[in-house]
Amino acid sequence: MKELKKLNKLFARYKWQIIGGVIVTIASRILSLLLPKYVGKIINLLNAYGQGERTDLDAVESDLLLYIAIIIGSTLLAAGLTFIMRQLIIVVSRHLEYDLKNIIYQQYQRLSLSFYKQNRTGDLMNRISEDVSKVRMYMGPAIMYGINMITLFAVIVPAMINTAPTLAFYTLVPLPFLSVAIYVVSREIHKRSTLVQQYLSNLNTISQEAFSGISVIKAYNLAPQMNAQFEQVANDSKNKNIDLARVQALFFPLMVLLIGLSNILVIYIGGRQVIAGEIEVGTIPEFLIYVNMLTWPVAIVGWVTNMIQQAEASQKRINQFLDIEPQIQNLVEETTPVAGSIEFKNVNLVYDDTDIHALKDLSFKIKAGQTLAILGKTGSGKSTILELIGRLYDVTNGVIEIDGTPIRDLNLDDLRKAIGYVPQDAFLFSDTIGNNIAFGKKDASEEEIEAAAKNAVVHKNIKNFTLGYQTVLGERGITLSGGQKQRMSIARAIIKTPNILLFDDCLSAVDTETEEQILNNLKKVTQDTTTIIVSHRVSSAKNADQIIVLDDGKIIESGNHHSLLEAGGYYADLYANQMLEQ
Ligand SMILES: Nc1ncnc2c1ncn2[C@@H]1O[C@H](COP(=O)(O)OP(=O)(O)OP(=O)(O)O)[C@@H](O)[C@H]1O
Fold it and tell me: Does residue 127's CB lie within 6 angstroms of at least one atom of ligand 1?
């Protein structure tokens, strides 16, 4: 229960509903006790009349009616209270589930990029859905049935002992066995259903991957292999389901068997006691009802124990994520405006997970409003520089200064607000084109959205869609071409009018003519903006105030277009090659 303790704070939010639920449960259980008591009384009454001990038929009939009325009244009232109990406790568990999901989601949002590199999306999804629903079973049903069971026992067992102690003993003896048996069966059910879940998630992963890569599958004619792979996993999944069904089928027969055993004991021992004159005949039906009232809660002990164990395991997995402190922390509360000059001083970055030394003693400087272009082979560390400026990672050593202040001493929100970042892999949400562009600036007007799209040279494309800016994009914006996606992503960055613009190879999928147009537009709208352009093309870099060429995390050349051409190194070769290609 150590892990589940973390939920106590959440429970405290709903303490009145929970206390109300407990009181109502106790009241309803006490009321339900009247049924067996009065059934016993009716049998004794009829027996007395049959034996000639009571002869006044009118009095017997009126007693009978009174007893029946008490049974009906108490049962209706108990049912009403049970309804209220469920309303209170199950409804609270839904609120708690909602709260817990929000807490986890907010924590996911806080966590740094490195966390997402280390954990699989499926796992993140599972903890917020599967695990939370297991914990809800503890917060609602397990607690409700637990309280129900305890009060029922506290009420019925003394009543039984009070009425007939010997019979009570024999009736109660099989119940612990029932409880253990149900526990064993439900543990087995849990084991097998976990396997079923695993196979189901394999099946989902395979299908999801197949749908995402459908064009590759078709182009390589891989459909038969994919079908065979799916069939194999689906077959395994079916077998696991059959295994589960087999054990599940045991559950009810087992209960019926043990209830039957208790009933027979009541009739046999009770019958002998009636013959011996130790108890009244009405005690037998009274006890039969007690047994049936107790069986479900007893069976549930095993089930509830299992639910709590599963919730404990799930909460442990949830706590693992909740207890992680984000690697990137905002260390500054006060606002720190960002103008845009950037300096790297002997910056090194080693990625924790791969130990790749991506940047080695890197130093360079850009004044606010200037443009820097970064070129270099793939994997030389270009994107890493941009990620460090946005503090998606912290440097391993060295310092990055913005406006002369170390980046860690800037308010993280202010820093990120000052940056417009266009990643290499343009990501668009399943929303309208207009909203995707306005994502960078929530209160953007239609005119501003259009102006940004015009500057990113994508306005005409958007206008060609029947619904224009209202066109809804599919998952990952699949209805758009690569170049269109990149330009939308540029529009999203420039609409913010940030002080620092970071372009990560985001013109790679547009033709050189459009590239030229975009760069010209950018020059106009980003005159005072510090701009860093990462590219493989000289055409994107040539007009920059400063150009650096990276190789294996180090600067191998720096200067401007002319000085680098004169130097006759990597840049000059690249220029010559790319001029030839045109
Ligand atoms: N999140 C990460 N975790 C671990 N290693 C990484 C991570 N991102 C990049 N790397 C590694 O760091 C090195 C530099 O990568 P980076 O993406 O900065 O190169 P790049 O110059 O932008 O390459 P490209 O031109 O292909 O985009 C590469 O060896 C890469 O494998």
Answer: no
Does ligand 1 come within 6 angstroms of the Cβ of 485? no
DSSP 372: E
Pairing of strands 419-422, 500-504: parallel
Q: Is 215 in the pocket of ligand 1 (CB under 6 A)?
A: no
Fold type of domain 342-428+493-581: Rossmann fold (3.40.50)
Residue 381 in contact with ligand 1 by CB distance below 6 A: yes
Q: Which of 84-88, 174-178, 328-332, 382-386 has the lowest mean pLDDT?
A: 174-178
The upper half-sphere exposure of residue 147, i.e. CA atoms within 13 Å in the direction of its Cβ, equals 24
Kindly report the protein residue whose alpha carbon is nearest to atom 2 of ligand 1: 351
Residue nearest to atom 3 of ligand 1 (CA): 351
| Closest residue CA from atom 6 of ligand 1 | 351
> Residue 5 above 90 pLDDT?
no
Global pTM value: 0.77
**Which fold is adopted by the domain 1-163+300-327?**
ABC transporter transmembrane region fold (1.20.1560)
Q: ipTM of the assembly?
A: 0.95
